[in-house]
What we know:
The complex is a heterodimer of chains A (299) and B (99).
Chain A: H1 28-40, E1 44-48, H2 52-56, E2 69-71, H3 77-90, E3 97-103, H4 104-109, H5 112-121, E4 126-131, H6 168-173, E5 179-184, H7 188-199, E6 205-210, H8 214-217, H9 224-233, E7 240-243, E8 247-250, H10 261-265, H11 275-298
Parallel strand pairs in A: 1-2, 1-3, 3-4, 4-6, 5-6
Antiparallel strand pairs in A: 5-7, 7-8
Helix pairs in contact in A: 1-7, 3-5
Chain B: E1 39-43, H1 53-57, E2 63-66, E3 69-72, H2 82-86, E4 92-96
The complex binds iron/sulfur cluster (SF4) (2 copies).
The site of one iron/sulfur cluster (SF4) has 13 residues of chain B, from helix 2.
Amino acid sequence: MKKEKKMTLTLPVEELVGSGNLACQGCGANLAMRYVLKALGLRTVLCIPACCWAVIDGAFPHSCMSVPIYHCAFETAASTATGVKAGLEMVGDRETTVVAWAGDGGTFDIGLQALSGAAERNDDILYVCYDNEAYMNTGIQRSSATPTGAWTTTTPVKFPKDRPKKDIDAIMAAHYIPYLATASTSYPEDVVKKTKKAKSIKGTRFLHIYAPCPTGWKSRPEDAVKLGRMVVQNCIFPLYEVEHGEKYTLTMKIKDKKPIDDYLKLQGRFRHLKPEQIKLMQEEVDHNWARLLKKCEAT
Amino acid sequence: MKPKKEIKKVVFQSAEEMPTMPMSIGNMLWNKTGSWRNIRPEIRLEDCIQCGICWKFCPDMSIEIEAEWPVVNYDYCKGCGICAEECPAKCILMVEERK
Ligand code: SF4
Ligand code: SF4
């Protein structure tokens, strides 16, 4: 070995997610949990509804995590977290961060009502949605987070999804919660920074983390990190924060915006798309990006 | 690095042994996910620039830092290839696993 120097680690070293978990190879959800827990530390309770993470964690009586998990029903992530928080406060614990950790199905569709209720009451919870853009755990069914044109088992190639992805961040911003942010697992420092910021705030905080899923997207596992980076660079999933529902801030400025083609090409779920469909999708992305820029400028 | 946790699978022989509440007692370290792998990462340390990027992006916490160098834990590495893809010095090779 020729040189000896100190390794430069840009993240906290503590690992609260253990090896031996049941995530697929190259799982983005696993990365999301790893980074968020690095930022939150041991004094954390997780409430997990049905989602990939309900499985990744391991079967009873084992758990790969170093923090407690409360497995709850699909639609109740936010309300369970509210209850756990209230219970902890009753016994005098105001320090512990209570996290509702749900996938996109449990946030965009099934858990939306409970989430909206908690956000409206401004309950002191951190809601994290790791978004892999379909119901992956049950076998890749379409959710309202699935992007236009994508293949899933319930939107087959002949009838790919024809509606745009639901803008959950706008819905959450419309609740005027103190803090909401989008993040991607390919920018771990950013995930840690936003999680720490969210931890320091009181009230309902919402993190929307983009988590590539090689199994459901029919992409190569080694591309998982690359995809998470591309999706930010081509502005399909821009990184920004919203404070009190009004103050929009871009946290990653995009200087030269890439076309979406390379991103689509790496994923089997978009393989059937024709050039004119890709053009329509590009227009949709451009439109959303312009709208976001306007919102950021307005504040 | 901290001392490793105990590797033990919890098995109940009878209903009486079960806890009254469904709570986790053991960790998942008994589940050696290394057996899922059909390609394995090999780090050529001569070329490594000690950037820690492989450690940062491994979804399975299978790259450990020992005395400032990255070491793959083959017990749990699932062979996804992210470390090889992301290494800026391109010093991780994915080689076929021989059984
Ligand atoms: S191949 Fe994947 S699981 Fe194995 S060490 Fe590299 S990143 Fe980790
Ligand atoms: S990513 Fe490559 S260069 Fe960086 S520490 Fe890992 S093996 Fe070394």
